[in-house]
Amino acid sequence: MFASDNDPFPDAHSRRYRIRGRFDCALFAAFTRQRAALLALRIVSLRTAPGLVEALVAGEPALLGMFEMACALGPGNCIVDDMTSEACESDRCL
Amino acid sequence: MTMWHPVALGADIPAGTVAPVRLHGDEVVLWRDEAGILHAWEDRCPHRGMRLSFGFVRKGRLACLYHGWQFDGEGRCRHIPAHPDLSPPGTIRARTWRADEAHGFVWLAHDGSESLPAMKDGAFTAARSIAIESARGTVAAALGIGQDPVLSRDGLICAVHAADGETTMLHVAVANPADAADAALWAQRTRDSIERGEAVAWELHL
Ligand code: FES
Q1: CA B187, CA B62: separation in Å to the nearest integer?
Q2: Whose CA is nearest to atom 4 of ligand 1?
Q3: Per its UniProt entry, which superkingdom is the organism in (chain A) (predicted)?
């Protein structure tokens, strides 16, 4: 869980998602940003490499679940082969 | 300048119902709540993109058919059945269009802040909306409507809008309610004439 004096999401949970597949990373990263904005989630970090998008996301658990489901499907023209999701309960996730 | 487009007959959207329309290729859902207030939104659920026009109206909200997310009159998501205790964030909302009604027609505007211009007084009765497989320019030229969205002639009021590049919707209303049935037939004849490239005959009563 992330918490600081000026954290706008003091009760937020956070999860790290690793998404592997056949896609344009920039397109997929843009999709994750849009989905996070729609669901009022905070993207703490977002990294891409060929065939990989890794996002650390904080927010309401139910909304994180929706985010995960959306990323498992991905946008059109993107094929997700594998996705992992792990809870991050401490600063070691940052 | 705000561009208002007539896209449907208000009578075709009774309270508690939902209808899809297309305007220049954009897909829009029209729905009217139980209190009679008309709403126009992008026809796409913010959740997974299902057409909201497949949804249904319940207690002042439009519910998506797919997973049942409910959106209030402002387009904001208020209920997610899979998470009944969750208060959905204000970021989850349908994209709204501006909608108004005049002369029996529903009018839409995508942007701009100007209200629908005042129109000549008069009560009109909806007669028929019909799709014509011709571009708007062809239909407008056949009707002599030009760039104006509506034409009033011989007790008929006709409105046209481009659903897309190849299909034009013609909406017909009448000043005299007794003429509504004949005007509906006139709309059919007019469609057939335009699609065959023939001149439009304005006689209402044959
Ligand atoms: S697509 Fe509309 S609620 Fe899921």
Answers
A1: 32
A2: B67
A3: Bacteria
N residues, chain B: 206
pTM, whole model, 2 decimals?
0.86
Name the residue type at position B17: T
- Structural domain contains residue A27: yes
Looking at the domain that runs over B1-117, which CATH code has it been given?
Answer: 2.102.10.10
What is the average pLDDT score of chain A? 87
For residue B91, give how far its alpha carbon lies from the nearest alpha carbon of chain A (Å).
Answer: 5
Domains of chain B, by residue range, sit at: 1-117, 125-196
Between CA A41 and CA A14 the distance in angstroms is 9
Question: For residue range B162-185, what is the model confidence (pLDDT) as tens digits?
Answer: 999 999 999 999 989 999 999 999
Residue A94 lies in a domain: no
Cβ separation of B92 and A39 shorter than 8 Å? yes
A92 assigned to some structural domain:
no
The identity of residue A19, as a single letter, is I
Tokens of B124: 């009109």
CATH number of B125-196: 3.30.70
